[in-house]
UniProtKB/TrEMBL annotation:
Coiled-coil positions: none
InterPro entries: Amidase_6
Domain called Putative amidase: residue spans: 3-153
Native source species: Clostridium manihotivorum
GO MF, one example: methyltransferase activity
GO biological process: methylation
Keywords: Methyltransferase, Transferase
Protein name (database record): Methylase
PANTHER family tied to this protein: EXPORTED PROTEIN, EXPORTED PROTEIN-RELATED
Length: 167
């Protein structure tokens, strides 16, 4: 099994500006929350990742009485998704895994980018869906719904994590 980064970015490009109605769009509550992690999780599923229900759960389940759903924190919260991917890589578990890259120049299509604030909390994530003519990665994301955009200066807080995905 391998991560199909082309399928993941195809999904991201299709649904960055038009969310998939098979999933609940998680709107921000004031200045917290949003749909970025759920969107990235959806991209990972499109790229071939399988949901995981055991000791490190990563899942989403619609509930028959829509608009309700059940999902793990690792699916829906940016800091939890980031920790899950890195932690899952050190184990021989099912589900997607992430490996930290040394810098922006190592990014390839389908890699993820996570942003950490001054409180050392990962607060947002995006997926690399293209590169500009100079080789700078372009990202797609939810919460701040964007398709093939440059990383905005407001995301530069203290630390940016570049994550290679594998299954």
């Amino acid at each position: 099994m391998y991560y199909n980064n082309i399928a993941a970015i195809s999904y991201a490009c299709t649904h960055a500006l038009a969310p998939n109605n098979k999933y609940v769009y998680m709107k921000p509550f004031g200045k917290i929350g949003g749909d970025c992690a759920s969107f990235l999780s959806q991209c990972l599923i499109a790229g071939g990742a399988k949901m995981k229900y055991d000791n490190l759960p990563w899942f989403y389940e619609p509930v028959s009485y829509s608009p309700y759903y059940k999902c793990s924190l690792n699916w829906s919260v940016a800091s939890s998704l980031y920790s899950f991917l890195i932690s899952n890589a050190s184990k021989k578990n099912l589900g997607p895994k992430g490996r930290l890259l040394n810098g922006i120049e190592e990014l390839t299509l389908g890699d993820l980018i996570f942003f950490e604030n001054s409180n050392k909390k990962v607060f947002h994530g995006s997926i690399v869906t293209s590169f500009d003519k100079d080789g700078t990665p372009l990202i797609s994301q939810h919460t701040y719904d964007e398709l093939n955009s440059h990383i905005k200066s407001q995301y530069f807080k203290d630390t940016i994590y570049y994550v290679r995905i594998f299954i």
